[in-house]
Amino acid sequence: MEKLLPKAKQTEFHWLKLAKKRQLTKTIFFLEFEIPQSLQVHFQFEAGQYVTLKYFSMGQWNQNDFSMTSAPYEGKITLGIKINYEKSSAKDLFENLKVGDLLEVSEPKGRFTLVSKPHEFRTIIGFAGGIGITPLLSHFKNILRNEPRTRLFLFYGNKTKEDIAFKNELDELMNSHSDRLKIYYFYSQEKIGNGLFEGRLNEKKVALIINQILLLDDTDEESTIWDAVDEVLICGKGEMIKSVANACYHHGIPKRNIHFELFEEFNEDIYPVEKDFPLIEDIEVDFKLLHHQYSSKLKNNKVRLLQQLLIQGFPVPYSCKSGICGSCECVLEEGDVELLENEYLTEKEEKAGIILACMSVILSKNIKVNFDLN
Predict the structure, then answer these.
(1) What is the pLDDT along the chain (374 residues), one digit of tens a residue?
(2) What are the residue ranges of helices labelled H in 253-340?
(3) pTM for the whole thing?
């Protein structure tokens, strides 16, 4: 996962030494950082989290977020990074960073996490597209080590076989835990002689997976494997997440058990909005951002708060615009908004007045928010 976003919340960085670097595919490379004893307390993390790398590239400083592939028990930070285009900062980073170099790495963060339940019998499935495998690899390694009763199914989509990142590591995991882990690869631009595994991971493909792979359950002859699914993990491009998440929901998985992580900007809702809101016009907005006070007037509430402020040119922090990443988190100090479904905020945070600007429909003539949470 790579995110490009301005930050309103302070991020703590530390210098870490690069221990390993290698190319995995034509466009994806691997980095491993050592964590010295003196910094281990700052780099304790949960499976599924990410770090920010700060580095100089093409005349400017960059702060980009990348999901970790390492599991907490491994005691190191490992990343899979994709080079999306020829002149990207990621390509510059790969070509210029050498083993032994020091790089500024943030303390781990993110909420694409699961509560560990080592004493329960669970079924967890994952859907990954391309570089979206990175946080799922962290999750699966962690679950296989710490939850002996949990079984896992991974459905991993790529363009071709040559594009599969971490293929060797995934196959080693499956061979070592063949009784609890099954991995299925899908190809959108390569014919392999089996239509089930050709094409993108989407709503139609999920239906086929349920009917052809997640069938009779050896542990319960009266139900299917799909009936036993406890949690779903999804990471990839926005369209893939939207299609797969809705397919899982429509096939009976509660939304609270469907977890997803984006690795690019996505401007649509993951789930359809099923509610109409009263029209509010001529809205006055006051907000604090990076220690500056701003005021603006919005024509109406047909577009959500974040999107309206971005249209007007304000440097509001964002990444996904879909209620997943939490980058636009802020405190509602005055006024009313309707906060739509999101994957980020806890009930405690919502009760404390914290909202996500990207998921906020304004319901009053005046609102005041504060993006400087620190």
Answers:
(1) 444 344 456 679 999 999 999 999 999 999 999 999 999 999 999 999 999 999 998 889 999 999 999 999 999 999 999 998 888 899 999 999 999 999 999 999 999 999 999 999 999 999 999 999 999 999 999 999 999 999 999 999 999 999 999 999 999 999 999 999 999 999 999 999 999 999 999 999 999 999 999 997 777 777 899 999 999 999 999 999 999 999 999 999 999 999 999 877 777 888 888 789 999 999 999 999 989 999 999 999 999 999 999 999 999 988 788 888 888 999 999 999 999 988 899 999 999 999 999 999 999 999 999 999 86
(2) 305-311
(3) 0.87
Q: What is the CATH number of domain 122-262?
A: 3.40.50.80
Single-letter code of the amino acid located at 5? L
Structure tokens at 274: 């099923």
What is the CATH number that goes with domain 281-370?
A: 3.10.20.30
Provide CB contacts within 8 A for 193, sequence distance 6+: none
The CATH class that applies to domain 2-106 reads mainly beta
Q: Residue 325: which H helix or E strand, with range?
A: none
Domain coordinates in residue numbering, the chain: 2-106, 122-262, 281-370
Q: Are strands 50-57 and 102-106 parallel, antiparallel or unpaired?
A: antiparallel
